[in-house]
Each structure stands twice: as C-alpha cells, then as structure tokens.
Amino acid sequence: MLDSIRSVAQGWVGKALLALITIPFALFGIDSYLNNAGHNIAVAEVNGNSVSVQEYSNALKNMRDRLLSEGKADQAQLDSPEVKSIVLNQLINKQLLNNEIQQAKYAISDVQLSTYVTGMPEFQKDGKFSQEMYDQTLQQNHISPSKFEAGMRADLLAQQAQDGITKLGFISNAQADHAFKVMSQQRHVTVSEFKTKDFASQVKIDPAQVKAYYELHKNKLVVPEQVKIEFLLLSPANFMKEVSVDDAEVKKFYDENAAKYHGNEQRRASHILIGFGVSATAAQKDEAKAKATALLAEIKKDPSKFESLAIKNSQDPGSAVKGGDLGSFGRGAMVKPFEDAAFNMKVNEVSNLVESEFGYHIIKVTEVSGGGTDFDSLKYQIKADLIYQKTQAVFAEKSENFSNMVYEQSSSLQPAAKAFNGQVQTSDWLSREAGAKFFKNDKIMNLVFSNEVLKDHRNTEAVEVSPNNLVSARLVEYKASAPRSFDEVKDGIEALLKLEAAAKLASAKGEAALKDLRAGKEVVGIEWIPEVTVDRKNAQGLTELAMNQVFKTNVSKLPAYSGIADSKQGFLLVKVIKVSDMAPADAEAKKLAKTELNAALMSEYLSAYKQSLRVKAKVKVNEKVLLGSTVNNQ
Questions:
Q1: In the chain, how long is the greatest CA-to-CA distance?
Q2: 151, 164, 190, 540: which could form a disulfide with 9 (CB 3.0–4.6 Å)?
Q3: Using CA atoms, how far apart are residues 404 and 462, in angstroms rounded to an integer?
Q4: CB neighbour list of residue 632: distance below 8 Å, 6 or more residues apart
C-alpha cells in the first residue's frame, strides 16, 4: 500500500504536517531526536520513559530559533528558566500522549496514511499527487522512507487522540453574545499601590531568623558543580591568511552584480523602435535594420531631431506620441539588451542600434536619478566579502577533518590547534548553565559534564555552537556541587526575609483600606492615579496585573473596589467608577468573536486533558540537569 509513498516522515515535511494538523506541543520533527541521539542523560522520566538531554536540547534550540526568526523574543528571554521549563513540559506532554495512544490502542491504517500523504499540497501537481515531486522533495531533505512512515503515523495518531477532546469546546450563540458584550466593555478606573519598598524601613530581621532559614533550606543553597575547561574554536577566521583576492576578481564580481550595487538608480530614456515582427525573415530584419541605421545617422548629425523623428517613425505607439519618452524605470523593468544599454549611457547620449526581441532601438538617456555606487567606493568592501566567502569555503572543506582529529586524538586539543591555525583557550570556573550562556549553546556543556569528559578526560566532539563556529572542549579542573556557607548567603537571606515581611505589611495595609472603602468609609493617604477609561485591548498605561484586576472587579454596585496582593510589589487597589458598553458589533464581528472563543475553549479542554494525564502519571524532572539545581519529584 505504501510502497509508492514510503519516503515521507520527517524533516521539513514532518514540520509542515505538524503545522497543518496543529499539534501545539510538537515543536520539532521526529528525526531531530533520532539523528542526534547519543547521550543517555535523562532530563525527565515519564512513567519510566526517559526524555533525553539531547531530545530536550534539540527542542529548546528549535523553539529559540523559531522565536528569534519571528522577532518575538530577545536572547536574554530565550536563556531564561521559564523558557526551558516550557520546552520540557511540552516534551513531557508529548510522552504522556504517546502513552495514552498506546494504552487506548488508537490506530491509523495504511489506507488512511496513504490518503493523507497523497493529498498533501506539497506533493500536488495539476491537482494530483506527483510521485516525481514527492521523490525530489524527500531526496533534497534526506528523509528516509521508514522514518517518514513512522513519524507521519505518530503525528496522525496524536491528532486523533486530541480531536475528541477539542470537540467538547462548544459555545452557544447566547454565550458568545454575552462574552462579546463583556469583552467589549469599557471601564472608567483608577488604581493605587501600597508598595513593598515603602514598608521596608519598618522591618527588623533577627539574626536568629536568618540562621533558621539557612538551616531549613541548606540543601537548596548550593553551588552547582563547576568546571574549568580548555576549548578550541574553528571558524572561517582560522583560514583568513590562506586566501587572497586580486583586483581583477573584485572588478569581475562588481560587473556581474551591477544591479545589486546600483540600488534604486532610475533612468529616464526615449527611444525609436523599428520593429521586424515575431517571426521575421532575414530579409525583413535587414530591411528594419537599414531603416534604423538611416534614422541613427540623421540623429547623429542633428541630435535635436530625435523627438520629431520618434513621432514620425517609431513603431512603439505608446511612446511615439511623446517623442519616444518612456518615463523613468529601474533595473528589471526593460528587456535585457535595452536595460544594459540604457544603464551604461550618460545623460543626453544616443546609443548605437540595440537589437531586442521587439526590433531595433535607438536610445537616448535624458535623466539619471536615485542611488548608484561606483566601483572605487566599493572595491575594498567587495574584496573583504570575497575573502570571507573563500574562507568559508575552506572552513567547510576542513571542518570534517577538524571533527575527526579532536575525536581521534582525544587526549589533547593541541594537535588540532596546530593543524588548523587555532589557539587553545582556558575558561574561568563555569557551571553548566553559565557555560551554556557563555557559548550560547546547551549541547557543548552537556558534553563537558558527560562521563567521557569528566572521568575519561577526553575531548568533546566538535559542536557547531553557532553558524560556521565549531568548538571542542576538554576538562582542566572539576568542583562538585557543595552547600554554600552561612556567611556567603546570610546577607541575601536577610534581604529576602525583609522583602517578605515588608510585602506582608503592605498587603495588610491594603486589605484594611479595601475593607474601609467597601464599607463606604473615607480612607486618608491613598494616592490614586489620574482616572482612565480602558477596555480589554487598550490598557492606557495600566500594568497587566492591574488590567486583570480591573475586569475581575464586581461592578454590581459603583463605585466598586477590589484589590490583589503582589509579593514583589505590594498590594494593588482598584477603583471602578463607571462601566459602559461599546457600540453593538455587526454580525461579522460577532461571528469572528465566537470563532475565537470556541478556539480558546477547545484549547482549555485540551490543556485540562493533558493535565489530567500528568496527574495520573509518574513524572520525575532532573532539575539538576535542567537548571543546575536539585532533583525534583512530582
């Protein structure tokens, strides 16, 4: 059944499928794990099944790359514990769902799989499945038949398991109308804060409290295991001295890429066209050429006649009536022979005969505008670019040899450094997390902390820590994880306890004020911000916490008051003065709102389903590997 489509299961094809069937937790193709496996350290265990460090690292890299490409995050956010936790939870959910699929005995038949694959748009030509497109796509992406079949079937099974849950997410028209009315409501409000920092001066922390906190949390106040390492970087810069570029190469490159360097340059030109037809004979072409040659000779004698001769003789009716004027145009707007001639002429210069598919042209450039960059101003930049391109080519050739050498001569990085013009560098003390930030790569530090490196003192494999940058590392010194001394942490503990106590004072003050306001009493000393009118899409400068509280406030009686404690900031007090409904929405807006609400409800049901699977499961997270802290059991 699947012999004709036995190549379809991962790579970008797998990713395209995931996008089509919207499995929210599947962030990378099945091949990402299978192709890169090799380290058995588990970052988590789900009912006895391991989520490997390699699998986690691949998923984390996939998410980071995607968010960076979409401009949705900066590097600092991508390195945060929150992002790592999100990625791990997605992998755990995936494993839980796989377990559920096996236990419930979901199945996708060969016929279903074949029907789906042959219907995928990526493999369609003239409305039908194309074996040629299919084979070509898989070959280009190095996708093996067995992996494709397994990956595709797994993805469809996951979708099957979730479909029944998401269908529970249904909202009636009445519910949608009510929700839309609430969502479009405006509230005239003000807020006030009882800030934690304003109460800090009222707090005194007893040294005994600090000591007690230390003794209670000593097992968590640890210095993570650390290493000093040697590392060797291979990049195109290693081979800069081996390449050269002469002036002739630079000029040739400039000439071949003239369009790129002329940017937005525009030419305005006039022409006289003497056509010879689509299927002209040699005699017809000779006749047209003779007429054009005669006109050119007349223009050469008296250039002022160009316009009048164009009006009388040009066979381009659109421009002939304007004396041959074609207006302004950039590169790519005209046929190639015409463009080449026009962009190599000076203002008021008249060309010789230019032959194109339309006939013979006599061209006169009348104006030049826009940006054009000459060779002399660019030659040094072009030379640098060409040198870099050549060094990249050398790097690509030698990177495999580098990888082989650090593996085969694993007792030292010096042989590779000598062979590839590199320099072995030594780091300061690095934890797993600090090293990942230093190299902007998790994989290299996972290798550094592996048994092969820590116990056997071997070089790590060469890791591409960023495009065109390979790194191999080896251990110099190792320090095991150890508790921090009381003197190291006492100041931090005191500051933490002080903050917690100040937050409690702020919260108590805020709760008391809220109680009095609800009782209709006047409270002295509250500093309300200027009143603003907000809706759910326009916060008017209010924080997310404030906005959430504004729309949680019960407005059955106005003015309405509510409050919420924020352990970091203090206590937020909200006053809703007036509530008003926005103008009724049209049918299309209501329909769109219902669709969005249905989607949100479906997502909530799916989230609850995954959470129910997790409650029943035995999940163990190795936070020491994940975040450099202690192991956590759930």
A1: 110
A2: 151
A3: 9
A4: 620, 621, 623
What architecture (CATH level 2) is domain 226-242+378-480? Roll (3.10)
Looking at 271-285, 490-504, 539-553, which range is the least confident one?
271-285
Lowest mean pLDDT among 127-141, 400-414, 499-513: 127-141
The reply to whether 264-371 shares the fold of 3-169+619-633 is no
Question: Which DSSP symbol is given to 305?
Answer: G
Between strands 226-234 and 469-479, the pairing is antiparallel
Cβ atoms of residues 124 and 109 within 8 Å: no
Task: Give yes or no for residue 575 having a pLDDT over 90.
Answer: yes
Q: Nearest 5°: phi and psi at 552?
A: -90, -15
The one-character DSSP state at 458 is: P
Counted residue by residue, the chain has a size of 634
**CATH classification code of 3-169+619-633:** 1.10.4030.10
Q: Cα dist. 28→9, 199, 308, 381 in Å?
A: 12, 49, 68, 39
φ, ψ for residue 456, nearest 5 deg: -95, -10
5 near 582, Cβ under 8 Å? no
Closest among 394, 304, 408, 303 to 350, alpha carbons compared: 303
Residue (of 524, 618, 449, 577) closest to 190 by Cα position: 577
From 617, 584, 467, 481, select the one nearest 89 (Cα to Cα).
Answer: 617
Expressed in percent and rounded to 5, the helix, strand and coil fractions of the chain are 55, 20, 30
**Contacts of 556 by beta carbon, 8 Å cutoff, 6+ apart:** none
Average pLDDT across the chain, whole number: 80
Give the bridge partners for 563, in sequence order.
Answer: 573
Distance of CA 620 to the CA centre of its chain: 30
Would you call the peptide bond into 559 cis, given omega within 30 degrees of 0 as the criterion? yes
Q: What's the rounded mean pLDDT across residues 157-161?
A: 75
- Which is nearest to 1 in space by CA: 133, 149, 169, 218? 149
Element (H, E) at 465: strand 463-466
Phi-psi region of 601 (alpha: psi -120 to 50; beta: other; left: phi over 0): alpha
Three-class secondary structure of residue 236 per DSSP: helix
Contacts of 155 (CB under 8 A, 6+ apart): 14, 17, 18, 21, 23, 26
User: Phi and psi of 412, rounded to 5°?
Assistant: -165, 150
Q: Provide the CB-side half-sphere exposure for 364 (13 A, CA).
A: 20
* Residues forming beta bridges with residue 255, ordered by sequence position: none
Name, in order, each residue with C-beta under 8 angstroms of 33's C-beta and a sequence gap of 6 or more.
52, 54, 55, 58
Best CA proximity match to 510, nearest among 194, 291, 285: 194
**Count of H helices and E strands in the chain?**
25, 21
CB 462 within 8 Å of CB 406: yes
Domain definitions of the chain by residue range? 3-169+619-633, 185-222+485-580, 226-242+378-480, 264-371
Q: What tokens were used for 29?
A: 């193709």
What's residue 170's pLDDT?
65
Contacts with 481 (C-beta within 8 Å, 6 or more apart), sequence order: 222, 223, 224, 225, 624
- Cα angle value 294/297/300 (rounded, 5°): 150
Element (H, E) at 150: helix 145-166
pLDDT given for residue 534 in this prediction: 92
